[in-house]
Amino acid sequence: MEGMSFFKQWYKAICEADFTIHNFPFGSGIIRGEKSPRSLSAFGYYAIDLHAARQAGVLGNLTWSEDIFLRPVLNDFIALGKEASERVRKKLQDALARYSPDDPDLASLFPWLIPMDHVQLTMPVHVPNYTDFYSSLEHATNLGRMFRPDGDPLLPNWRHMPIGYHGRASSIVVSGTPIRRPWGQAKPDDAAEPVFRPTQLLDIELEFAFVVGRNSSLGQPVKTQEALDYIFGFVLFNDWSARDIQKWEYQPLGPFLGKNFGSTISPWIVTTEALEPFRIEGPVQEPAVLPYLRCEGPLNYDIELNVYLQLPGQEPALISVSNTRYLYWNVCQQLAHHTVNGCNVQIGDIYASGTISAPYRGGEGSLIELTRKGAEPITLPDGTKRTFLQDHDTVHFRGFAMRDGLSLGFGLCSGRIDPPLENPV
Question: Does domain 6-122 have CATH number 2.30.30.230?
Answer without folding.
Answer: yes
